[in-house]
Amino acid sequence: MLEGVIVSNATLHNEDEIQRKDIRIGDTVIVERAGDVIPHILSVDFDKRPKISTKFIFPIKCPSCGSKTVKEFNNVTKKIDAVRRCSSEGYYCDKISIEKLKHFVSKDAFNIDGLGKKIIEGFWKLKLIKFPQDIFKLNYKKIEKLDGWGSLSVENLKYSVNQKKTVSLERFIFSLGIRHIGLENAKLLSKHFISFLKFQNLSKSKNYNDLLNIDGIGETQVTSIKSFFSNEINLKVLDELGEILEIRNVVAKKQNGLLKNKSFLVTGKLNGISRAEIKSLIEENSGITVSSVSNKLNYLIIGEKPTRRKVENAKDLKINIIDQEQFLKMLNKTS
Ligand SMILES: [Zn+2]
To answer: Residue 335: its pLDDT value, please?
Structure first.
């Protein structure tokens, strides 16, 4: 009990911290709880340490696949990472594969509605999916017979999966889960490659060093991309996804798009379109996005459960308040 709260677990941070504080299995520890954050272990009560105690040795081999575990050297901080990772590449390691799949369907990646982390894990265990491309080849007949699924939920899943078969190159690159390639780097890479084919061709051209010319891409990223492309399974995944998906080329921003000189802000949840997607849609059409309601804002797009304060401020400033449909109409589109 701590401040009237039962504490069942506390964070240990990392390997270095455990070594430094000499925390061992079976130890009695002093726990601190600061604010509402997860309590953390302050120190060990050595008087209460059992006579026979052993240090916890971090595995030098991945418990899942047996590959060597490594602590990477961080080029930016010039320090060795605190986190120990499995060094396998591709889909060799089961644990990494599952995480890769979760990342693939996540919000900023393919953003597939109704395909959350738990479902990915379930499908994995049932061998319904192993690689990202399997998501687009799901056996819906089999899923329909599973506990908790019915024809309606299967129809919904099928719909949201099929809806995401068209994807921008930047999202696609991000979704691959290449180490050190986050959203920003994926965007930079997509602008460099323009098309999926050119990106895929990197495995043949091997022009990795060219990537160093991209402002924002450094050696850490290039090494990581190189190791991604030198793995056969990754190349097969790319190949198959390229067959199934429609990966849009990067289009230069229109100089005189339909949204020229117009600024936008979104509040609330939109239907089937993420924040990142709407942002690129606005930017592709020469519009700009702003982060707060002010005189500079032209349109406030409201979705489900909008922030009331934003809506009221917009009303006070007589800013146009529109919904998703009205926004898409501005682009001559419908959802
Ligand atoms: Zn592993």
So the answer is: 60
